[in-house]
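Interim report, section 4.2 (structural modelling).
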Amino acid sequence: MIEISGLSKYFGNHRAVNAFSANLATGVIGLVGENGAGKSTLFRLISGVYHPDAGTVFIDGFPGYSKEAKARVFFLSDDPYTPHGMSPMQMLAFYQGLGNFDTDEFKKILSTFGMPFDRPVSSFSKGMRRQTFIAMALSSDAPYLLLDEAFDGLDPLSLETIRGELLRKAGKGKTIVISTHNVTVLHRLADRFLLLSNGRLTKDGDAQHLGVEFIKYQAVFPSKIQDTDLVSMGYRIVSFRYVGSVCHFVALDEYFEEEPIRNKFKPLLLEKVPIDPDELMALEMLLAKSEGGADDA
Amino acid sequence: MLKRLIRGQILSWIPVFAASAVSMTVIFLIVMVSNQITVYCEIYRSAFFIVPPVSSGLLGIVLPAMGVCFVIPPIVYSYRTTRQGSDAYQQSAYGPHTIQRVRALVGLVMLLAAFSVAYLVGVVVFAARYGATPEADPVILTDIRTGVEELYGYYYRKVAELIYYLPVYFYLLLALIAQYGINCLACSFGNSKATQFILMAGFAAVGSLFLSAPATFISQAIKDHFSYWGDVPWALDIVTACDYISYYAIGPFAPVRLCEGVFDGLIGTYIGPEHPLPEAGGHAIAAASFHVGVGLPCFVYALFRKEPSGELAGVDGTSNAFLSLIPHFAILFAGILLTTVAYSRGTRILYTGILLAGYYALLAVFRHDFRLRKIDWVALALIATTLLAISLGYNPKHSRTGW
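Predicted structure of the assembly:
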């Protein structure tokens, strides 16, 4: 288990990670947050690339940054180091010097992904390079995999293949922490979500717990209304927009009652609609941001 | 597992080795193939001249090799300057120190191997050409300077002694390790390519400015005399900034000077302009000894020093950002130039004052703070003392009229 307690990291006056605490056990864990929320910095702190300014990391009981702890983690950054002119197998040989990888497993996963073995990785497209590195991460013997922007540049078919491989590895007891902006895939993959905003952990729970506080409606009013009309009635509106004559709005569930709206605006249509995972995550981020505000030290 | 690390490193270093070896070999070969080795005679104004073999061609290898010493260390420490590199290396279970050591040693092996290939090829080609030129053997040279105005300032000693290429090779190995070590130490402090180059240049300036004085004294002790030119013994009026760095350098130009001033004459026949310093040979030996003597411990220190944490990929994680060193090195460069443009003690003292004021202004600009810290006072005192020592100097054989 990775035990993180009070982890903080500053860059100059900017606090990139702010007193982050969580325990990461087995399964697939989704780390989400807006751009600059501190996801990559958090990964770098856990994997020992950066040293924290405060807080501790323990990996299977070993203090972070110790050899034993580092040997248990493989961090795949959003833009990993690609030695120039090396084929996937040569690149694995290079990375073998920095960690332990199962060559047969790497070949097998590469074949599953349909990657060429003989061309230089640096000549691959972004998506192909990503698949090669994910294959390398999955062939690592480290029990903890940290995959930053894991699904960047991948087509739907590759995404599906990778999702299958990730679930297979997670089923064998690996802990896989994934940060991505592709929340739809993550939703079908992760058992648990960590929401990061301005370097702080603002939400930690399973997929069912995400978005429980939101309620989304579509409505048609006889005359157009503004979000301020709803706010003035005491509703907490998170999102409000018109598509044609149909008004879509999301409010915080705990403050929401339909009756006052029906009575005041006499809507022709007012119905609750489901929220898709991408929108849900965006709403979570929006809410976290509005509650947290800027947090530069 | 360490074997795998070394194997992976060698694999990734092959292009660097190939580029270094090819560039050094090509340059050295061009010099060694075009070196004039045919002895010929010419008549000018009824006088008979013998033009002997010209030079050992050593500058053709020592200059590019010293240049490569400024290229490989930034590559060795490049993993610290890019986010991709630091992500890959810093997360490794070996830890940054082992990786730093392995990369520095692999880089050194690549440098020495590339140099050895280039040196061997160049010398073998030169020896073959020399052996195939029988006219070169029987020439006995005499001092022909007197009365021959066209060759004034040139002197000849003897024909080529190829055996001296062997000790030169071993000396150059040491000099390369020394220069590589100095630059490795400089680069190990930098966290971006820009700071690494600034630090390497700064370390070279430190060698040229601060270590030149003791080297000069040793040189004088060897030759048992002081310079007759100039009003101070180690800052001659007649030398330019370029000459200054060249003649007084403890840095990368020390091996160049030794090859040019000493080895060239041992192997071939020195035909360059007569050296402005009478103690030049002694100075070259002293400077080269200092260079090796300082450089080797620098390399050992670079191998074993612990990297500061959080100073990676251009991200200054602590207040100890190395960009703050820029004012210090800027002042060192200005100090070197000062000694070459100021012709009298009076102006040197004046320039020293201006220099120190400039230093203070630079510090204030870089820090956005006009207050001086304790360490700044120490640095100011050191710089002032050194510059004043250079400005005032001591030369018992010179009449003190320089004010």
